[in-house]
Amino acid sequence: LKDRADSVVQNGTANISNSKRESEPSKKNSIKLNVKDADNSHSINENDVKLVRASWRELTKTEDYKKFGLKHYGTNMMIKIFLNYPDMKPIWKFSANLHTEEEMRLSPQLRSHGNNVFEAINAAVNSLDKPDQLSLLLIDLGTRHIDYGAKTMHFPVRTRHLSLLFFQIYY
User: pLDDT tens across 109-120, in order?
Assistant: First the structure.
């Protein structure tokens, strides 16, 4: 994910395809979005950027972050989603044989995905004052999630657990 984000930043474009794997791009459904194509009408102001970044910095001051890094938070969020919404587990192929919290916590794929979630958030936080870059990152991320089968109805669950995670960190 970090490599993809860096590529978007350097090139100013995001490659969008309906392919499940980057190594097998679908030429028929592949498009290349330029920064000019991105809709920046939902921008945030400078104060919002400062508030979000200050909150994100607080996360990096916690003992858990110092000890485990971003992967810790992503792992915990994924475990809570799997335990509270087991019907969502099939979205993640790696979760098929994860039945207990211990199995989930030990899963390299779950930990890796949890880390990727928080690396994506980190990339977005770092791009808040660069709307073109942020738009491309979010378009790229959204397109990949469509390819994975994510549905609009799944996002409130993820948002709720992300919010709860931050609430637990700060309060």
Answer: 999 999 998 899
**Cβ atoms of residues 73 and 59 within 8 Å:** yes
**pLDDT, tens only, 79-96:** 988 998 888 888 888 999
Per-residue exposure over 71-108, b if at least 16 CB sit within 10 Å of its own CB, e if not: bbbbbbbbbbbbeeeeebbeebeebeebeeeeebeebe
**Confidence at 22, pLDDT banded by 50, 70, 90:** very low
Please state, in angstroms and rounded to a whole number, the distance separating the CA atoms of residues 122 and 68.
Answer: 16
Contact between residue 14 and residue 8 where contact means Cβ atoms under 8 Å apart: yes
**Tokens of residue 141, six digits:** 């991320």
Q: What are the structure tokens assigned to 153, written together? A: 């109805």
3-state SS, residue 20: coil
Residue 168 burial by Cβ neighbours in a 10 Å radius (0-12, 13-18, 19+): exposed
Question: Beta partners for 130?
Answer: none
